[in-house]
Design goal:
This protein is an all-alpha fold. About 50% of the residues lie in helices and about 0% in strands. The protein contains four helices and no strands.
Length: about 90
Amino acid sequence: MQGERNAPRELRERIREMVVRAVCLKIPPESLPFDRLLFDGSLGLDSIDALEIAVTVEKEFKVRLDEKEARDVLSSVETIAAFIERTRN
C-alpha cells in the first residue's frame, strides 16, 4: 500500500490539511510530505491522534475504516488517499 501514488493531488492536499487540523499539528500543511509516516515518532502522534484522524476521515469522506486495516491505511497521507480512492471506486 505504501507505494500507491494514483490518488489525485487535490485529494492528497485535502487529506494533508485535514490531518494537520485534526491533530493540531503546529506545522504548515505543505511541510508534511504526502509519503511521510505519520506514526514513526517524529511528529509526536499517538493512538489518540490515530483515532482523531480515523474519525475525521470517516466523517469528511463518508467512508468506513475497518479496524483491521486502520494501521496500514493511516500510515501516511498517501495511504489514506489510496484508501479513499479504492473505497469510492
